[in-house]
Amino acid sequence: MTLDFNALKEEKKGQDTFQHPDFYAVDDLLTEEHKLIRDSVRDWVKREISPIIEACCQEAVFPHHIIKGLGEVGCFGPQIPAEYGGGGLDYISYGLAMQELERGDSGIRSTASVQGSLVMYPIYKFGSEEQKRKYLPKLATGEYMGCFGLTEPDHGSDPGGMRTTLKNINGKYILNGSKMWISNAPFADIAVVWAKADDGKVIGVIAERGMKGFTTPETHNKWSLRASATGELVFDNVEIPEENILPGVRGLKGPLTCLNSARYGISWGAIGAAMDCYESAVKYSKQRHQFGKPIGSFQLQQKKLAEMLTEITKAQLLCWRLGTLMNDGKATPAQISLAKRNNVAMALNIAREARQIHGAMGITGEYPIMRHMANLESVITYEGTHDIHLLILGMEITGENAFA
Amino acid sequence: MNILVCVSPVPDTTTKITFVDNNTKFNTEGVQFIINPYDELALTRALELTEKHGGEVTVITVGTAGTEPVIRKALAIGAAKAIRVNCDPVDSLHTAQAIHSAISNESFDLIFTGRESIDYNSGQVAGLLAELLGMGLLNIVTSIEVEGSDVIATRDIDGGKEKVSHPLPCVASAQKDLCEPRIPNMRGIMQARTKQLNVVEYADAYNDTEYLSYDLPPAKGAVKLIDPANAGELIDLLRSEKKLI
Question: Please, what are the domains in chain B?
Answer without folding.
Answer: 2-217 (3.40.50.620)
